[in-house]
Design goal:
The complex is a heterodimer of chains A (260) and B (632).
Chain A (H helix, E strand, L loop, with lengths): L1 E12 L2 E12 L4 H11 L19 E4 L2 E4 L14 E4 L6 E3 L2 E2 L2 H8 L19 H11 L6 H5 L1 H4 L11 H11 L6 E2 L1 H5 L12 H5 L6 H18 L1 H8 L11 E2 L3
Parallel strand pairs in A: 1-5, 8-9
Antiparallel strand pairs in A: 1-2, 3-4, 3-5, 6-7
Helix pairs in contact in A: 3-6, 6-9
Chain B lengths: L8 E2 L7 E2 L6 E5 L2 E4 L3 H12 L4 E4 L16 E2 L11 H11 L6 H20 L14 E2 L9 E2 L5 H15 L3 E3 L2 E8 L10 E8 L5 E5 L2 E4 L20 H9 L3 E2 L4 E8 L13 H4 L3 E3 L23 H7 L15 H13 L9 E4 L6 H7 L1 H11 L8 E10 L2 E2 L13 E3 L16 H24 L8 H12 L7 H4 L5 H15 L6 H18 L12 H25 L22 E7 L6 E7 L5 H4 L4
Parallel strand pairs in B: 1-9, 3-12, 4-5, 4-13, 5-9, 13-20
Antiparallel strand pairs in B: 2-3, 6-8, 7-8, 10-11, 11-12, 14-19, 14-21, 15-18, 16-17, 17-18, 21-22
The chains are: A alpha/beta (260), B alpha/beta (632).
Chain lengths: 260, 632
């Protein structure tokens, strides 16, 4: 079964652009990326779109479909009425390079600022032991395919370029939480999450969770627990008192505080 | 010189590097080691070269972290013995050689089996979170062709875990990454030999801007992955255009084993948009079985003599194996991939296929909903989202899909160096390790073991040169520049009305390769395919692309197409010459293995005028007696 699909695709570059109208023949069972590829192969050879795996595993083809941040390869045409015009625009929070491709280097800069995993020595047989239940917390966060749709959606930076230097964004709060919950990590990044990464600017509206194609519960399972850890360390009066009078806090055992 | 971005990363080409005003309109960067490709092999090589003290650049066609390694699902094969203390490198070595039908380079298979466990533990030290055993060790799962449960895994997204871990390690080490940057030519010092001189660098373009870029480096590591995009039904992404294979050929290196292409038995067949998309072997490792349209579990009819002694011949024994591996033999669904793919193909041809031209892969009737969702979350997600199929309730429809090329650059096993001085090759774009057929799980371990070895060797060679580095010839740079920009000119076809669209040629090439050089081959079809490839090559001389140089996929494809045509010709020529069936090469007109072919490789090199490839035969390296014992 095939039909003619009407599409509006944003064409342009950093200097500006506009929506272009295309009509393309599509088949039942296809996804938006298929339709864009057909436009590219038959009508606009230079139409720029980023993609790789076409299976929802690499997170390359992020864009906004009828205004909603989604993966082009995981959005089926059957989600739309056949007569509906599908409009595709580039992610709004990042500078446009060309057409549907944006400059996502903000995310790579934030990744580089994040102190990496630092385990203690292995067991005497050279192996490391962790319980399945303990690794599963981090595993949920490591499902992240770095599509950056959460970063694109987060209202702290979506229309506030000025917040970017002080705000790492949901993808990296996920990483802070992953490392903080890692059974073998020895770094303490709580001050850093609050300071350099700006987790305090997040007011848990859960927009990031809503657009995550992997269904990671970013806000509930990563950001809120991370905020709680930060608060526990910085503002809990009992912890403060304990530190003041020299009572050892087991939460800090074997961890090196990386400061803010 | 390289400006510091403070992050070691650069994703834009607009402000990077220095354009040399005296020689041309490209920017120039100097490194000790340039790694082309940022999948598992490239990242591991770069980390090793960096650790060995080299100044390293990673150059990759996509963004960092998007390489095809993310698609690997099942796991990393390594004889760690966490599930089965009986497992060790000797058993893994034996399984690998037998899986490759003894055509593997024995030394590579040995190094691989010996070093894989350390490479996996290293990933854990860098932050990978593998699934655990009850004792808290790294869990290991069953896979086809492996005698023991041996694959370290993270659900069914092990590749993503591996690439993210290596990516985060590379970032931690502040290794320079040139993202969305494609290499179009290798450069060689003409004073060190005509056509095969020592490597002196690489030339390419930034995809974002279309600006040209020169890397001057005495060591280049090819880690560009495979060739799957030459086929229509494939699990591979757009990047898999055989770039490393073709760059090596043009530099004067040789390819081996190119006739051996792995068709993974289980790719999705419906809907059309996802045809070829991978369905992990873990489905079978975790209990899934194959049925035809008559509901018959047909794999029992396809157990070859070679594997009879170690394969269950009754449903009872096969099912009992999952719980008791000591007293039962493996289910036939877990035969090596070439055997299973051929069986599925036969069932479909015999008219016992499913509604959309595949067969059924059933785990719904075999395992609980909870088990399936926990062990195979990505598969559950993939079928639910893309095919409206709930794999906990109904069987999947699957069929063979082009997945992996065993063939690649012929290299020295211990270092990964090719016949060209300074040119290394690792991972899928190298050849020999997997012989005629790769076992599932042996790819990820291959990337780690040989990535590290080549990275170290490349760094050590570069360090040994001191100031006596091979030089780049101006004439070669001008020629490389011209080749890169040729698709904007149309090769003379633009005026005469013969201009060709790269998308059209690519899609016709894919159709042709799928039909004529696919899973079952004949001399007549292979000869036709070679004729077709010649015509594509002729047409490709007149490629003309629309638009400008900034992020122009049509132009990128036009350049990749050159490589696709060269590797397609290599595959078809080698497939025509090998008059037997073995591993990932099945000839309908020569249905069995032939002793004569058991001891030799087909070697592909660029022909004299550089327009195609020549074939030669070469004896296999002979295994030492102490290793032969494992096969008595």
């Amino acid at each position: 079964m095939s039909y003619d699909l009407k599409m509006r695709l944003w064409r342009g570059d950093a200097d500006g652009g506009e929506l272009g109208d295309y009509t393309v023949s599509v088949e039942t069972g296809e996804v938006v990326l298929d339709a864009i590829h057909r436009v590219q192969a038959t009508q606009a050879g230079d139409l720029a779109v980023r993609w790789n795996c076409k299976a929802g595993k690499c997170g390359s083809c992020s864009a906004e479909i009828n205004g909603r941040p989604r993966l082009l390869c995981m959005t089926r045409l059957s989600d739309f009425d056949e007569s509906e015009t599908i409009t595709v625009t580039p992610m709004r929070a990042f500078p446009v390079i060309r057409d549907l491709v944006t400059d996502v280097s903000y995310n790579y800069e934030k990744a580089a600022q994040l102190p990496s995993f630092k385990p203690g020595p292995p067991d005497s047989d050279g192996k490391r032991r962790m319980a399945q239940v303990d690794v599963e917390r981090g595993q949920e966060f490591r499902k992240c395919i770095e599509c950056f749709l959460c970063q694109n959606t987060c209202h702290v930076v979506r229309d506030h370029e000025e917040n970017k230097p002080a705000f790492a964004g949901p993808r990296f709060f996920l990483r802070y939480a992953e490392l903080d919950m890692h059974p073998l990590d020895t770094h303490d990044r709580r001050e850093l999450a609050q300071g350099a990464a700006g987790i305090g600017m997040c007011n848990i509206t859960k927009c990031c969770t809503e657009v995550c194609p992997e269904g990671i519960r970013i806000t509930d399972n990563a950001i809120i627990p991370m905020k709680e850890r930060v608060v526990d360390k910085k503002f809990d009066p009992l912890v403060w008192l304990g530190n003041k009078i020299g009572i050892r806090n087991k939460d800090n055992d074997g961890r090196e505080d990386l400061g803010a | 010189m390289v400006p510091s971005t403070g992050s070691g990363h650069r994703s834009t080409g607009s402000t990077q590097g220095a354009t040399d005003p005296t020689t041309g309109d490209w920017e120039t960067h100097d490194y000790d080691v340039v790694v082309i490709g940022a999948g598992g092999a490239g990242l591991r090589a770069a980390i090793a070269a960096h650790d060995a003290g080299a100044k390293v650049a990673i150059v990759c066609k996509s963004l960092l972290g998007k390489a095809h390694t993310v698609m690997a699902e099942g796991g990393i094969a390594a004889a760690m013995g966490n599930r089965w203390p009986e497992d060790n490198w000797e058993v893994h070595f034996r399984d690998t050689m037998r899986g490759g039908k003894m055509l593997n380079n024995w030394r590579m298979a040995q190094l691989h089996a010996q070093e894989a466990p350390d490479r996996v533990l290293e990933l854990e030290t860098w932050g990978a979170l593998f699934d655990r055993t009850e004792d808290g060790l790294i869990s290991q799962r069953d896979f086809g062709g492996h005698r023991y449960a041996r694959l370290a895994h993270v659900g069914d997204r092990t590749g993503l875990e591996m690439i993210r871990t290596l990516q985060q390690r590379a970032v931690e080490l502040n290794i320079d990454v040139f993202m969305e940057c494609t290499v179009t030519d290798l450069l060689q010092d003409p004073s060190t030999g005509a056509g095969t001189g020592a490597v002196s660098g690489a030339f390419g373009y930034w995809r974002e801007t279309g600006n040209l870029v020169l890397f001057r480096a005495p060591s280049v590591v090819l880690a560009t992955g495979g060739i799957g995009k030459s086929f229509k039904v494939t699990s591979n992404s757009w990047e898999y255009t055989g770039d490393g294979h073709a760059l090596a050929l043009r530099a004067g290196a040789q390819l081996i084993n190119m006739e051996f292409v792995q068709f993974h038995p289980t790719g999705m067949v419906w809907p059309p948009s996802v045809k070829g998309l991978l369905v992990t072997e873990s489905v079978r490792g975790d209990g899934g079985i194959l049925r035809n349209s008559e509901g018959e579990r047909f794999m029992f009819d396809y157990i070859p003599e070679f594997f009879k002694a170690e394969t269950a011949d009754s449903v009872e024994e096969a099912d009992a194996w999952y719980e008791d591996k000591k007293n039962n033999r493996r289910p036939p669904e877990l035969l090596p991939r070439d055997e299973v793919a051929r069986a599925i193909n036969s069932e479909i041809k015999a008219g016992r296929g499913s509604e959309h031209g595949g067969v059924y892969l059933d785990i719904a009737s075999r395992r609980s909903e909870d088990f399936i969702k926990r062990r195979l979350p990505s598969m559950y997600h993939q079928f639910k989202e893309l095919a409206d199929v709930d794999i906990t309730r109904e069987p999947m429809e699957i069929g063979p899909t082009c997945h992996y090329v065993m063939g690649g650059v012929e290299v020295e096993p211990d270092t990964g160096v090719s016949a060209v001085t300074g040119l290394y090759s690792v991972g899928e774009c190298s050849g020999g390790m997997h012989g005629s057929n790769r076992l599932g799980g042996n790819s990820l371990s291959d990337l780690l073991v040989f990535g590290r070895r080549a990275g170290e060797a490349a760094a050590s060679y570069a360090a040994g040169l001191g100031a006596a580095k091979p030089s780049v010839a101006d004439a070669d740079l001008d020629a490389a520049r011209q080749r890169a920009l040729a698709p904007f000119e149309g090769g003379g076809g633009a005026d005469s009305g013969h201009a060709e669209n790269p998308y059209t040629i690519q899609s016709e090439l894919q159709e042709s390769m799928n039909e004529l050089v696919g899973i079952i081959r004949t001399a007549e079809e292979l000869e036709r395919s070679l004729g077709a490839i010649e015509r594509f090559k002729e047409r490709a001389r007149h490629l003309l692309v629309q638009g400008g140089r900034a992020y122009n996929p049509g132009w990128h494809l036009a350049l990749d197409l050159r490589n696709m045509l060269l590797v397609s010709e290599s595959i078809a020529k080698a497939a025509l010459a090998r008059t037997e069936s073995r591993g990932g090469h099945t000839r309908d007109d020569f249905p069995g293995p032939d002793e004569v072919w058991a001891t030799k490789n087909l070697v592909v090199s660029l022909n004299a005028d550089g327009t195609g490839v020549d074939l030669a035969e070469k004896p296999l390296p002979v295994m030492p007696d102490e290793l032969k014992e494992f096969f008595q």
